[in-house]
Specification:
This protein has 23 helices and no strands. By secondary structure, the protein is mainly α. Among the domains are: 119 residues, Serine Threonine Protein Phosphatase 5, Tetratricopeptide repeat; 111 residues, Tetratricopeptide repeat domain (Serine Threonine Protein Phosphatase 5, Tetratricopeptide repeat, Alpha Horseshoe), CATH 1.25.40.10. Helix 9 packs antiparallel against helix 10, helix 16 runs antiparallel to helix 17 and helix 18 runs antiparallel to helix 19. The radius of gyration is 23 Å and the shape is globular. The model has no long low-confidence stretch (mean pLDDT 90).
């Protein structure tokens, strides 16, 4: 691949700032300089797709692939454009198959391939694609959601429910919700917070939460234990300890810590969350989880996640109508909540409404694709490869 031109660099910078119109202009300027610039065509396709101009996006992406058949970002644009235009599933399947060949270890390619195969009524092949995605990345929530939906269609909710629970645990938005309840912005709990540990308990708690948010669970546990040695009744420390136990699949210990926190203060949202999440992992305690998550919806108004958690507990109780209402409450607060959309699809399937289920699944895929920014990772890899 050729190196990035000055005009392409400008277009990239503008696009990352969300300045779409001038970025498109810069792409056209780059193409006037060199009509065979695959990066310019690819970036133009991505910008067109972001604005909903799917046909134009497809043309630009196809041209980029013609010029560089290993441009993964262009395959993403072309496949998503075909998906969103609808009725082009044969083309979509071909594009995702090609991307899976170009980048075999890219789990997202197999997730998208599975969705295109399912839309084209190749159900067994779709399941194979999603299973392949999980082989590549066992923490891929969207593939897990799709496999749970497939199990629901074939064998019913009892078989599907463990898959929904596992997919929910893999969804990073649930962890972000816990830190928000604790009063922290998960993205703000950076390396600086982990290294800046002052003598006060407030600084230590912030550092412990930062370690937890960055998957340094052992360091977070050590710091929390040292806090609890001197402040055994600190509800924030007990709640975080419960969260850490949940992350390590130690459900009984999580229950003990969260119950201890709630005996000290019944109005501790992080403890309510941790106890509800622990109960949710024990199917026999689904009714207790439902009550706790229902209480959490009033403790965290304006947040979609407690409604989602409440809905999932209601699914376990086979209260599908109530679960549907809870999912609608979540989507009223966050229309792009991927987890709620998959849940809404599950509720629709229990009622035999396959059209509504398919619509919800497509919306979930759309919002998840936008949330995870599939375009820029492959694009940056292609651009960096061009400068080597």
């Amino acid at each position: 691949m050729i190196e990035r031109s000055e005009q392409v660099r400008l277009a990239e910078s503008l696009a990352r700032q969300g300045r779409i119109a001038p970025a498109v202009t810069a792409c056209y300027q780059a193409l006037r300089v060199n009509e065979r610039d695959p990066l310019a065509h690819c970036l133009l396709g991505g910008l067109m797709l972001a604005e909903g101009f799917c046909e134009q996006a497809a043309r630009s992406a196809a041209r980029a692939i013609e010029l560089d058949q290993r441009c993964a970002a262009a395959y993403f644009v072309l496949g998503l454009a075909y998906d969103r235009m609808g009725g082009l599933w044969d083309r979509s399947v071909l594009v995702w198959q090609q991307l899976a060949e170009v980048v075999p270890d890219l789990a997202a390619a197999h997730v998208q391939l599975g969705e295109a195969l399912a839309a084209a009524s190749f159900a067994d092949e779709a399941i194979d694609a999603w299973e392949r995605a999980l082989q590549i990345d066992p923490r891929e929530p969207r593939a897990m959601y799709h496999l749970a939906m497939a199990a629901l269609k074939r064998e019913g909710m009892a078989t599907a429910l463990p898959g929904f629970r596992k997919a929910g645990e893999l969804d990073p938005s649930q962890d972000d919700f816990f830190f928000a309840l604790a009063g922290y912005d998960a993205e703000g709990l950076s390396a600086a917070a982990m290294s800046d540990i002052g003598p006060g308990i407030k600084s230590q708690l912030r550092a412990a939460h930062a370690f937890a948010a960055n998957d340094e669970l052992f360091k977070s546990s050590e710091l929390i234990r040292s806090i609890l040695d001197g402040h055994s009744d600190d509800v924030a420390a007990l709640s975080l300890m419960a969260y850490l136990y949940l992350k390590q699949e130690s459900v009984n210990e999580a229950m003990a810590c969260s119950l201890r926190a709630l005996t000290i203060s019944t109005k501790t949202p992080t403890a309510v969350y941790a106890l509800g999440a622990a109960f949710a992992r024990r199917p026999a305690l689904a009714a207790h989880a439902s009550k706790l998550f229902s209480a959490l919806t009033t403790m965290a108004p304006g947040q979609a996640m407690p409604h989602v958690l409440h809905a999932e507990s209601l699914l376990g109780l086979q209260r599908y109508s109530a679960a549907g209402a809870a999912y609608r409450s979540a989507l009223a607060l966050d229309p792009g909540c991927v987890r709620a959309l998959f849940g809404q699809a599950a509720v629709a399937l229990t009622a035999g409404d396959h059209t509504a289920a398919a619509w919800a699944i497509r919306r979930a895929a759309y919002h998840d694709t936008r949330r995870r920014g599939y375009f820029w990772g492959p694009y940056d890899a292609a651009a960096e490869g061009g400068e080597q």
